[in-house]
């Protein structure tokens, strides 16, 4: 049954969680031929956090979710839907239901959503549709990844980039709609530039049937092409989202991009003529945490008092697929 009075959405609370174990650039120099200067000048990353047992995607996502629920002032039992944006579930069948159980969100339906580093933005738009149609009132959106599981620690092109973490937000039905505009894009013809591909070996089932069985290769990335893709496509998709929101770029209070590389963040801000003091970045501390990076940066900025109610935020995710998207929203009710 549709709610005819509160079909807008508001993002009412945030939370985040990172693993306890840091890995700084100096320690990486003991693994591969690199240097702190080489990593920081090319990526802006100084350290990242790695999830070690008993930490898991489920524990990080649950911790971030508890914070978000507390910040929003609602109980787990009030949640109608849990969306977990991740590419690295603890269980290939999905981890959202485990998070639902850990939270005690007894009436929530839960499922995973996979769009790699764009996952949080894709999840935000997906969650909004359920609320706007009146189907659900309270949605918990989590972005979380443990990419350290899938990194080749001998490949200096990728092992310096990635870290682990989770971030979460609560979206609620609201009289005014705080999601002002969005745009989502995909281009599978460029999939080979960034992937985590299945790698099988053959197992004989019968004399005539040989079934592939196996696991996945480590993350493979063409850094130059991904960089080129990001600096071209991200400003375009933010412009499209701003057009949908009927806003000019000068109305943006904060820019929160997927935290992949400081040079990408700087280049996009420059192309959009967004001044440095409006750009939120924590890539130096956490590296690329995939779907976790935007909600992690958002939550830190909220808790630091930077982001205040009614501030207008432009955000954009981009990554494997290739996928990219942008959303313009106002913080709070």
Descriptive report:
The chain has helices at residues 25-28, 36-43, 57-72, 96-103, 119-132, 156-159, 223-245, 262-272, 283-286, 293-303, and strands at residues 8-17, 21-24, 47-50, 81-85, 109-113, 138-146, 164-174, 179-186, 194-195, 198-206, 209-216, 220-221, 254-257, 312-319, 323-330. With 333 residues, it is an alpha+beta fold. Strands 1-7-6-4-5 form a five-stranded mixed beta sheet, with helices on both faces. β4, α4 and β5 (109-113) form a beta-alpha-beta unit. α3 (57-72) packs across α4 and α7 (223-245) packs parallel to α8 (262-272). The longest helix has 23 residues, at 223-245. The mean pLDDT is 95.
Counting DSSP H or I runs of 4 or more residues, the number of helices is 10
Q: Report helical residue fraction.
A: 25-40%
**Strand content range:** 25-35%
Largest sheet: 5 strands, mixed
Determine Rg (CA atoms, Å). Answer: 20 Å
Low-confidence stretches: none
Structural class call reads: alpha+beta
Task: Give me the oligomer status.
Answer: single chain
């Amino acid at each position: 049954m549709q709610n005819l009075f509160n079909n807008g959405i508001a993002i009412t609370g945030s939370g985040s969680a990172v693993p306890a174990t840091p890995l700084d650039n100096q320690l990486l120099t003991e693994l591969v031929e690199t240097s702190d200067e080489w990593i920081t000048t090319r990526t802006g990353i100084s350290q990242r956090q790695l999830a070690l047992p008993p930490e898991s995607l489920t524990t990080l996502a649950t911790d971030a979710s508890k914070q978000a629920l507390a910040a929003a002032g609602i109980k787990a039992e009030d949640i109608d839907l849990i969306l977990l944006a991740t590419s690295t579930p603890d269980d290939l069948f999905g981890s959202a239901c485990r998070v639902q159980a850990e939270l005690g969100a007894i009436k929530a339906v839960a499922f995973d959503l996979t769009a790699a580093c764009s996952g949080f933005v894709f999840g935000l738009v997906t969650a909004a549709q359920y609320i706007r149609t009146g189907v659900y009132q309270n949605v918990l959106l989590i972005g979380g990844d443990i990419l350290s599981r899938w990194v080749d620690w001998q490949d200096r092109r990728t092992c310096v980039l990635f870290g682990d973490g989770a971030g979460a937000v609560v979206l609620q039905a609201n009289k005014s709609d705080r999601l002002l505009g969005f745009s989502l894009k995909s281009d599978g013809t460029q999939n080979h530039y960034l992937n985590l591909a299945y790698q099988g070996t053959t197992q004989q089932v019968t004399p005539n049937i040989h079934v592939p069985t196996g696991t996945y290769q480590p993350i493979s990335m063409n850094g130059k092409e991904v960089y080129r893709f990001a600096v071209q496509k991200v400003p375009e998709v933010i412009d499209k989202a701003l057009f949908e929101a009927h806003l000019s770029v000068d109305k943006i209070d904060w820019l929160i991009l997927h935290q992949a590389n400081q040079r990408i963040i700087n280049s996009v801000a420059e192309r959009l003529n967004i001044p440095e003091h409006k750009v939120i970045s924590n890539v130096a501390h956490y590296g690329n945490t995939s779907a976790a990076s935007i909600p992690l940066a958002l939550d830190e900025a909220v808790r630091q008092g930077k982001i205040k109610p009614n501030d207008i935020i432009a955000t954009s995710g981009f990554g494997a697929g290739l996928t990219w998207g942008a959303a313009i929203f106002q913080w709070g009710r």
